[in-house]
Amino acid sequence: MQTSAKNKVKRGAMRYSDWMSELPPALHDIPLFNLAIPGSHDSMSYDLDISSPIAEPKRLKKFSRFYCVRRLMLKWGATQEETIIKQLDAGVRYFDLRVARKPDDANPTRLYFYHGLYTRTDVESILKVINDWAERHPKEVIILALSHFHGFDKRTEELHNHLVNFIKNLFGTKVVQREVTPTLRSCWDQRTNVIVSYDYPAKYHSHLWSKISYFYGDSMDRTKIESELSQVLKNRPSHCFFVCGLNLTLPENIRILKYILRMCDNFANVVRRSLPKLLPWLKQQASKKPNIVASDLATHEGFISTVIQLNAIK
C-alpha cells in the first residue's frame, strides 16, 4: 500500500474517509469481490429507541410496556456506537441494514430499522444521508445490504414497491448495475458508487443486487468465530460479494442469562474486550483474500485499519 495511505494509520478517526481513492493503482482494476472492505454489523443499532415497542424476539413482544425490559434490550442490542456519517467517515463501506415497519404506524409506508427495538430515525431519512455522503465522495463505493423486512407481511407488495422505487429515484445514476463485475476503475469511469443488495427475491431489478452471503461464528466464543470463518475462507466464494462477520452472537437459549444479567456490563463492553483479540487472527488472513469484513463497534480502534491493510498483500 502507498506510503501516504499507511501514514494515515497514525491520524484521527477521519483518516479513512477516502481510503478507496487512495489505494494504489494496481488495486483499481481488481473485482470488488476481491478487495478487503470494512463493514458494520447491524449498522443502525446505535439509534435504537428505548420508547419503541419490542420488534423481536416474538416471545418478548408482550413485555414491551415494561421499561426495564426495553432497557435490557437496548443494552444488549446496540452493536454500534457511531452514526452512519461517522461510520462512513471512519472508512466503513458495507452496511447491514435490517428494515421493519412499526405496527400501527399512522404513515402507511414509513419504515424503520431494527435490532430488538426499532430505531428512532426512519429508513428514508438515513438513505438520504448516505446519498448526500456518496455525492461528496464520488470515488468511495458504498454497499448497502437491506434485509429482513420485518412486519411487511400484511402489505408486502405495497411496501416493497415503495422502498424499491424510493431507492431507485434517490440514488439514480449512482447505482452500480448488478450485471457487471465492478472494479474501482469501472465505478469511477461510470460515475457510480452505490451498490444496493436487496434480500427479497421477488424484487430483483437491474439496479438491485441479490442477497450478499454473510458468514459468522454464531457464538460469543472468539475461538469458535475464528474456526468457523477459517473454514469459510478455505472455500471462499468466488465471483461474488461475501461477508466474514467478526460479530458476536448472544445465545438464544437459557445461556443468554450468563450475559444479560451482568448488571454493570453491556454488549459494547463485551465487544471492546473481544474485538482486539480477533484482529491478530484477521491480519493473518490476507493471503486468503477475505472480501467484506463486518464487525460490531466497527469504528473501534484498529478494526478498520486492519481490514484496509489486508489489501496491501493482494
Automatic annotation (TrEMBL):
<dbReference type="InterPro" id="IPR042158">
    <property type="entry name" value="PLCXD1/2/3"/>
</dbReference>
<dbReference type="GO" id="GO:0008081">
    <property type="term" value="F:phosphoric diester hydrolase activity"/>
</dbReference>
<protein>
    <submittedName>
        <fullName>PI-PLC X domain-containing protein 1-like</fullName>
    </submittedName>
</protein>
<dbReference type="InterPro" id="IPR051057">
    <property type="entry name" value="PI-PLC_domain"/>
</dbReference>
<dbReference type="InterPro" id="IPR017946">
    <property type="entry name" value="PLC-like_Pdiesterase_TIM-brl"/>
</dbReference>
<dbReference type="InterPro" id="IPR000909">
    <property type="entry name" value="PLipase_C_PInositol-sp_X_dom"/>
</dbReference>
<dbReference type="Pfam" id="PF00388">
    <property type="entry name" value="PI-PLC-X"/>
</dbReference>
<dbReference type="GO" id="GO:0006629">
    <property type="term" value="P:lipid metabolic process"/>
</dbReference>
<feature type="domain" description="Phosphatidylinositol-specific phospholipase C X">
    <location>
        <begin position="29"/>
        <end position="199"/>
    </location>
</feature>
